[in-house]
Amino acid sequence: EEKTLAMIKPDGVLGNYTERIKMVIVESGFSIIRETITQLDEHRASNFYVEHSSKSFFSGLIKYMTSGPVLVMILKKENAVADWRTLIGPTDAQKAKITHPHSIRAMCGLDSEKNCVHGSDSLESAQREISFFFGEISSG
Ligand code: ATP
Q1: What SS3 state is found at 46?
Q2: Alpha-carbon gap, residue 42 to 98, rounded angstroms
Q3: Would you kindly state where each structural domain of the chain is located, as residue ranges?
Q4: Which residues bind ATP (predicted)?
Q5: 127 ligand 1 Cβ < 6 A
Q6: ipTM of the assembly?
Q7: Does 79 count as an annotated binding residue?
Q8: Which of 36, 32, 28, 37 has its CA nearest to residue 75?
């Protein structure tokens, strides 16, 4: 089975969506094998989103990601990376409400920045992001 990293971003945690999101996760066949709540500082948020450092939205993104605690989880399931991306829906939560009304971002996101959840976009990012938050873990 595959592992992916899921994150409930500050707007999701502060908006009290944690339990609802976890319910969707479990009902969709994922196991939550690790979870931790943490507050990112500028340095860690910039490191996490380093691939976007030259984008125009980067400073806004870092401000958003450091505005409150995030809940990070390792999800396990067959095809976890792609299936979690499908479940969260498109980046722009406003569009998600129209095109993917049953997605998590449609449920709790606001726009293309405040979209309430994150999911690794490939197996490689999943490995990097899991190590980023949990250190090296065994591959069972
Ligand atoms: P994530 O990596 O968080 O799962 P994603 O892969 O759907 O989201 P990316 O393109 O990797 O989207 O962008 C990373 C994050 O940067 C987005 O989730 C969002 O919070 C923010 N972001 C992306 N595009 C914009 C934009 N045009 N304006 C403002 N913020 C944006």
Answers
A1: helix
A2: 33
A3: 2-134
A4: 9, 57, 85, 91, 105, 115
A5: no
A6: 0.93
A7: no
A8: 32
